[in-house]
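ok here's LysE family translocator, seq below lol
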Amino acid sequence: MLVGLLAYLGVALVVICTPGPDTALTVRNALAGGRRSGVWTAAGVAAGQLVWTVAASVGIAGLIRASEPVFVTMKLLGAGYLIWLGIQSLRAAHRAEGGHGRPGPAPRVGTTRSLRQGLINDLANPKMAAFFMSLLPQFAPADGRALPAMLGLGLLFSLLTFAWLALYSVAVDRLRRLFTRSRVRRALDAVAGTILIAFGARLAWSS
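and the structure came out like this:
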């Protein structure tokens, strides 16, 4: 039991600490709205993972993965959402120059919007359904305790994700004085936008 839990933690930490669309979105919102926006984005991502945990535990995720039209539609919607967020960041980078060479005001991202973006960003990625559906059963017992075990493992994964992304938000917030300088801000917005678009394109063309 303990060995299995430690193995699960190892796999989970590797996956969580590997930068992806959720990390890029959290950093983007932390830059735009500060620590609160980043933390609420992390909360939205974690909430989305909890939804996928329940879906995987009761078999809904399997139905989504088995239905090719539903899976493809969700994948394209998720890709489109990532690309749209990326374009927003690129536009923010362009606006950051402001008038007469002075830095323009950074667009604010409210907490409600940050939570919603984090939630949608996670739920709109059907790859998460396949991920939880393949990961959780490997570490859950095969008897009647499988359902509560999968729910518990998914909850642990979501909490670890929230903690990691919240840490990102705090780090970005502490460096905002540097990041809000015109040239640095434009570069970071451009990089964040490019990364989000790249993740969206990869999702759209993935099998």
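fwiw The two ends are 34 Å apart (CA to CA). kinda neat tbh
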